[in-house]
């Protein structure tokens, strides 16, 4: 195995394990917290506090990786995730779970650092395909994580599943430590500068800001539905955590097929702009129609539409950004981008927790929240229209 292939494999593994942890917790935490007596807004806070911590930390980690290197920052983020998983998995206290989620979020620089590392080792024309490969790891984590999390929770309880993903993270820590070198193409940036102002001097603002806005509103709507999916499945469709995990398996399969295979093909014939616009439309329709879906048979195609839209937008957005920022600032620019999406992932679950209480009846459970999510995707679509069709 040559050096570049080894680097790509480790980046894939790191993204996969990161998303395994996220995926395992998704079908478990909402119902688990509800069983412990948490209110709807507390459930939203528990799901979103991880991303609130990342709002501040992701651009700092990205800029730090520009200064001292990708590898040491990646090691710190993985270690923080291990500590967070252990705290979440071995407590019945909502307060300790919140603290564990916050620690995981504070150290969770994986996404921006992995994307920056990918930008360092790929040529501009390979960038979309490289981001698509990371998206495939994201999708695979969504296949294995929720299925395993739902199965383990149903038979053994949540602690076993979370402890196992902590063990996988420890293995990943060893792999990165012993086998992942600092990318040779990355030139450490030792300039002393205010982060935000300096980033703005090294990127195309007319492309960067509409792209960030598109992602922000998209992830608000998506995180609302992801938070509500286990609760909708239980209260409206009367299915358990294990069956809910299978829904996430379907979502993950679509993500890995589109992002890991079809996206690279699509990028040869269609501009990222058109994939972003069509993805926003697909998700907006899915969220609106989900509010009226009377049974799981009607809901499954809508979840598939959501997964398709997400799989088109998620790799295309950072790929556009990476092509319009100086290479020495990839980490900071992508870190700021991920920080905005993390803010969206915090706002989304909070909105879901607030609006789900308006529709407590099983037949209309979470209807208003679905409308709010669809409205957020409408805003995402409008922002996407501001991204130039012809990139210079």
What's this model, at a glance?
This protein is mostly helical. It has helices at residues 3-25, 29-35, 40-68, 70-89, 94-106, 110-121, 127-155, 158-179, 195-200, 205-235, 241-269, 272-290, 296-322, 330-356, 367-384. It is 80% helix and 0% strand.
Secondary structure layout plus pairing:
Elements: H1 3-25, H2 29-35, H3 40-68, H4 70-89, H5 94-106, H6 110-121, H7 127-155, H8 158-179, H9 195-200, H10 205-235, H11 241-269, H12 272-290, H13 296-322, H14 330-356, H15 367-384
- The assigned CATH architecture is Up-down Bundle
Question: Helix content range of the residues, please?
Answer: over 70%
Count of individual domains: 1
Uncertain segments are none
Shape: globular
Order of helices and strands: HHHHHHHHHHHHHHH
Q: Helix/strand-derived class?
A: mainly alpha
The CATH first-level class comes to: Mainly Alpha
Rg for CA atoms: 20 Å
Query: What is the tally of helical segments?
Result: 15
């Amino acid at each position: 195995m040559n050096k570049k292939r080894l680097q790509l494999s480790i980046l894939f593994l790191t993204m996969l394990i990161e998303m395994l942890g996220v995926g395992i917790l998704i079908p478990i935490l909402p119902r688990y917290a509800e069983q412990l007596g948490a209110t709807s807004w507390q459930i939203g806070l528990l799901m979103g506090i991880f991303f609130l911590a990342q709002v501040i930390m992701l651009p700092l980690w990205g800029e730090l990786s520009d200064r001292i290197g990708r590898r040491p920052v990646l090691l710190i983020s993985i270690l923080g995730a291990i500590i967070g998983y252990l705290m979440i998995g071995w407590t019945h206290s909502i307060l300790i779970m919140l603290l564990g989620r916050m620690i995981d979020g504070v150290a969770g620089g994986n996404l921006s650092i992995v994307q920056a590392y990918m930008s360092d080792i790929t040529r501009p024309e390979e960038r979309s395909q490289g981001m698509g490969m990371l998206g495939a790891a994201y999708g695979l984590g969504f296949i294995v994580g929720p299925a395993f999390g739902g199965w383990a929770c149903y038979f053994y309880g949540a602690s076993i599943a979370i402890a196992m993903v902590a063990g996988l993270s420890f293995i990943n820590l060893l792999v990165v430590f012993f086998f992942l070198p600092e990318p040779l193409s990355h030139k450490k940036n030792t300039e002393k500068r205010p982060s935000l102002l300096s980033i703005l001097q090294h990127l195309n603002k007319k492309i960067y800001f509409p792209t960030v806005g598109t992602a922000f509103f998209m992830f608000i709507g998506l995180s609302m539905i992801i938070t509500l999916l286990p609760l909708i499945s239980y209260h409206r469709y009367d299915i358990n955590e294990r069956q809910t995990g299978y829904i996430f398996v379907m979502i993950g399969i679509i993500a890995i097929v589109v992002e890991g295979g079809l996206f690279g093909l699509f990028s040869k014939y269609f501009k990222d702009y058109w994939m972003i616009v069509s993805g926003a439309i697909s998700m907006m329709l899915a969220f609106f129609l989900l509010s009226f879906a009377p049974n799981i048979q009607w809901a499954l195609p809508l979840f598939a539409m959501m997964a398709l839209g997400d799989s088109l937008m998620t790799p295309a957005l950072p790929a556009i950004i990476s092509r319009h920022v100086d290479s020495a600032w990839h980490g900071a620019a992508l870190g700021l981008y991920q920080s905005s999406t993390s803010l969206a992932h915090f706002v989304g679950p909070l909105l879901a927790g607030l609006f789900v209480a308006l529709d407590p009846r099983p037949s209309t459970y979470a209807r208003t929240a679905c409308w709010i999510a669809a409205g957020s995707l409408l805003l995402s679509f409008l922002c996407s229209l501001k991204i130039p069709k012809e990139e210079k």
